[in-house]
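Predict the structure of Acyl carrier protein.
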Amino acid sequence: MDPVQDYVNTVLTDKFEVPSDDLRPGVTLTELGLDSLAVTELLVTVQEHYGTGAPDDAVTGEATPEDVVALVHQLLGGTQHVGQMGEE
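Done. Here is the predicted structure for Acyl carrier protein.
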């Protein structure tokens, strides 16, 4: 498994107490029980771990954990502009 995905899943289960069984493809952060403050906290936690930066609103509650992983990969790959993920 992708180490970034592993880390995001660990943060969700350990810090936000999301049951690991709930971490299935396509489930949104809101469906996992995260409110807007928790979504921002997740983003900050992941950014601090990887030493990356993105706007606080780069991820919304409609994003999935996979979207967060994709954002980290974009940031680590040097992508300069990252739009909001999880918005329709």
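The radius of gyration is 12 Å.
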